[in-house]
C-alpha cells in the first residue's frame, strides 16, 4: 500500500551535519520526498506534536531538545512508508537499534536520537497536518517509479 509518513531530522542531526547523509538513505530506499522544510519548532507546536508523552519524566527535556535548534521536516511516500521508515530509523534507544539503521549507525543515546518518524498511519496523518499545509505537499511522478514499484 502506497502511503505517506512524516519524518524529522532533529536539532542534533542538523548540528552534527548529517542531514544529507540521512536524506540520502531515504532517497536510496526509493522513498519519495513530497515535502521538506527547515524550521525552529515553536513550543506550542512541540507540545502538540508530543502530546502523547505529556506527564512522562522525559517530556520537558524532550520539549527543550526538540525546540533547541532548527529541524528538517519531511513528508515521504512509498510502499508501507510508515513501517518502512520506522524500520530504517531503528529502536528509540540507539543502544538497542540495529546496525544498519539510522539510529544504530549514527546515534548513541535516547535523548539525542537524531530522527523522528510517525509510528502509525493515524499519527502520520496527524503529524503531516501539524507541520505542513496542503500546498506544501507536492504531487508528482518520479521517473524511477516504474522500476521501483510494481505499477
Ligand atoms: P520514537 O521517537 O521512537 O517514536 P517515542 O515516541 O516513544 O519514540 O518517544 C519520543 C521521543 O521521546 C524519543 O525519540 C526520545 C524521547 N524518549 C522516549 N522514551 C524516552 C525515555 N525512556 N527516556 C528519555 N527519552 C525518551
Ligand atoms: Mg514516537
Q: What distinguishing features does this structure have?
A:
single chain, 151 residues, alpha+beta, Alpha-Beta Plaits, 4-stranded antiparallel β-sheet, 4 strands, 19% strand, globular, binds 2'-deoxyadenosine-5'-diphosphate, binds magnesium ion
SSE layout and pairings?
Elements: E1 2-9, H1 11-15, H2 19-29, E2 32-39, H3 43-49, H4 59-66, E3 71-79, H5 81-89, H6 102-106, E4 115-117, H7 121-131, H8 145-148
This protein binds 2'-deoxyadenosine-5'-diphosphate and magnesium ion.
Tally of individual domains? 1
What CATH first level would be assigned? Alpha Beta
Low-confidence stretches: none
Q: How many strands?
A: 4
Share of residues in strands: 15-25%
Query: Whole-number average pLDDT?
Result: 98
CATH architecture: 2-Layer Sandwich
Radius of gyration: 15 Å
Largest sheet: 4 strands, antiparallel
Q: List the secondary-structure elements in sequence, H or E.
A: EHHEHHEHHEHH
Helix content: 25-40%
CATH homologous superfamily annotation: Nucleoside diphosphate kinase-like domain
What hetero molecules are in the model? 2'-deoxyadenosine-5'-diphosphate, magnesium ion
**Number of DSSP helices?**
8
User: In the CATH scheme, what's the topology name?
Assistant: Alpha-Beta Plaits
Structural class: alpha+beta
Overall geometry: globular
N-to-C CA distance: 11 Å
Major sheet: arrangement of strands: 2-3-1-4
Amino acid at each position: 500500500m502506497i502511503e505517506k509518513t512524516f519524518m524529522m531530522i532533529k536539532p542534533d542531526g542538523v548540528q552534527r551535519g548529517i542531514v544529507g547523509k540521512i536524506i540520502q538513505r531515504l532517497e536510496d530506499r526509493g522513498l519519495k520526498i513530497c515535502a521538506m522544510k527547515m524550521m525552529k519548532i515553536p513550543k506550542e507546536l512541540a507540545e502538540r506534536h508530543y502530546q502523547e508523552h505529556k506527564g512522562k519524566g522525559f517530556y520537558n527535556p524532550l520539549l527543550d531538545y526538540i525546540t533547541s535548534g532548527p529541524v528538517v521536516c519531511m513528508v515521504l511516500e512509498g510502499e508501507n512508508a510508515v513501517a518502512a521508515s520506522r524500520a530504517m530509523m531503528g529502536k528509540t534507544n540507539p543502544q538497542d537499534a540495529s546496525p544498519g539503521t539510522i539510529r544504530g549507525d549514527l546515534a548513541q543515546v535516547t535523548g539525542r536520537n537524531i530522527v523522528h518518524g510517525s509510528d502509525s498511519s493515524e499519527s502520520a496523518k496527524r503529524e503531516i497536518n501539524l507541520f505542513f499545509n496542503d500546498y506544501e505537499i507536492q504531487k508528482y511522478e518520479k521517473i524511477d517509479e516504474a522500476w521501483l514499484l510494481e505499477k
